[in-house]
């Protein structure tokens, strides 16, 4: 098949990748970065732990009650109602459920330990918000880091304390 030159150039133009170049100057980019910094919200910070789970909790004032865990809504990250109530319990206890936003990063441990780690970090952040919350949260031991850990396995035993079955001969 014979093609004309005009058709060939049109086909070449379609095959050529288009590269977009940012036309903003460095000063303009700095203005955008400065405005992004000024729009950041201030927050209160708390670190919670349970077993091997560690959570970093940020508490934002003047919120709507939104709770995000690892950049996901609470209902998606903790699908069971039991874990959701564990995380929400400090806010409900002090009556701040609809007034604050919570963002938490949690890693390590199991799902139950992660929920309790978020609860611990959230309780510590709430005490930074208002010292009067401390008495109410301490009464239900949300401010205490639960130090119980899995006991290590000992040599000669099957588990931490489980000995092999005794044999007479």
Description:
- This protein has 169 residues and is an alpha+beta fold.
- It has a domain at 43-139: Ribosomal Protein S5, domain 2 (2-Layer Sandwich), CATH 3.30.230.
- Helices cover 40% and strands 17% of the residues.
- It contains 6 helices and 5 strands.
- A 5-stranded mixed β-sheet has the order 1-2-5-3-4.
- α4 packs parallel to α5.
- 22% of the residues are buried.
Offer a few descriptive terms:
169 residues; alpha+beta; Ribosomal Protein S5, domain 2; 5-stranded mixed beta sheet; 6 helices; 5 strands; elongated
CATH arch. level architecture of the domain at 43-139 = 2-Layer Sandwich
Shape descriptor: elongated
- Rounded mean pLDDT is 84
Distance between the termini: 93 Å
SSE ordering: HHEEEEHHEHH
Stated plainly, the CATH topology of the domain at 43-139 is called Ribosomal Protein S5, domain 2
**Structural class of the secondary elements?**
alpha+beta
CATH class of the domain at 43-139: Alpha Beta
Q: Would you report the number of β strands?
A: 5
- Strand percentage, roughly? 15-25%
| Helical percentage | 40-55%
Residue ranges: pLDDT <50 for 5 or more in a row?
A: 16-38
Main sheet attributes: strand count, strand direction, barrel closure: 5 strands, mixed
In DSSP terms, counting alpha (H) and pi (I) runs of 4 or more, how many helices?
6
